[in-house]
Task: structure prediction
Amino acid sequence: MSSRDRVILFIAEGFGLGRIRFAPGTWGSLWGIPLGWSLGCFDTTWWVRLVVAVAMLVIGIPLCERAARLRNTKDPGSVVWDEIAAFPLVYAFVPLDGPRQWIILIAGFILFRIFDIWKPPPVRQCDKLTGGFGIMIDDTVAACYAAAFLCLLTRVM
Result:
């Protein structure tokens, strides 16, 4: 394996967290909390968060495609870039500063994991798509569900 391929796997596997055998998607998703926190620190607007989400999605398609080929499987559990890339979308429309910041960050994490594991329609149908796009899109749709519920939650908090 080339050093380039090792770097691709290191990034795609969440800088090592995706290599944890028990619940790699959950471990890899933990990167979403500091990512959301950093978006809040820079006082980003909703459209900047969407641009970041789209950029991470676009980067993730070939990244996850190559990592899946290197792992010789359709959607390896160790590849968690798809989970990480979903978080700017999860947090796109909620305040990420102030006294409730950590509650919102943790609630977004929990909501995303619920929808990513549960896979309500059309998440389940997207999960059946192949290639890098297929790896990325189901988590993107799960992030849309989480974002909607997180918006509702922050309005009642």
Observations:
- The chain has a mean pLDDT of 96.
